[in-house]
Each structure stands twice: as structure tokens, then as C-alpha cells.
Amino acid sequence: MTASVIEWSALAACKGPHRNVFFPPSALERKEDRLFREQQAKRICSGCCVKDACLDEALRNQESHGIWGGLNEVERRAKSTLVRTPPELARSDSR
Ligand code: SF4
Questions:
Q1: CA of 75 to the centre of ligand 1 (A)
Q2: Which of 9, 22, 63, 65 is the most exposed place for a label (fewest CB within 10 A)?
Q3: pLDDT tens track for 2-39
Q4: Which residues does 70 contact at the CB level (< 8 Å), separation at least 6?
Q5: Domain locations in the chain?
Q6: pLDDT one-digit tens code per residue, 53-65
Q7: pLDDT score of 3
């Protein structure tokens, strides 16, 4: 863990007993259970003062599991793709 990660993670709103809602359980999870769990996590993220740093870190590390910065892995992948797509390619996709 780098110094900057230690700095922002000390202020994370997800520390404590509700931390388990940020990651899927080891057993199979039904879709409605996942949606409910992720909704709980995102609600916590919405009030977190280090949300941007958390999301930046997750995008930089290509975190493949869990809620980071208020986004799940699918939402982060979509955001990464948008950020990395040069404007000229994005325009050619929309034709
Ligand atoms: S944005 Fe969410 S996952 Fe990230 S530190 Fe804050 S509460 Fe935790």
C-alpha cells in the first residue's frame, strides 16, 4: 500500500462492521441479493469524503471485484473504456 493510499483509506467511510457489503460473498449470490448489497455499499460511498481518491485508485489498479468509489466492477470497466477512448475513435463508433 502506498503512502497516498494509506492517507485516504484512513478516512474511508467503509471501515468497520459494514465492510462486507462492498465485496461479494464467497458463496454464490443471487442477483437481487447482489443488487441490494451493492445499493447499501453505494449509499455509504455517496457520503464518503475520499470517494474520488478511492475510485482513482481502483481504476489505476484495475480492481476487478467490489464497490470502489461508488462503482461496481462493470461500471468501473465502462468508465475506464470511456476515459481511454480517444475522441476520434469515440466519434467513429457513433456512426
Ligand atoms: S468511496 Fe466507498 S469504497 Fe471508497 S473508501 Fe469511500 S466508502 Fe470505501
A1: 15
A2: 65
A3: 667 778 999 999 998 888 999 999 999 999 999 999 99
A4: 42, 45, 46, 48, 51, 55
A5: 3-93
A6: 999 999 999 999 9
A7: 63
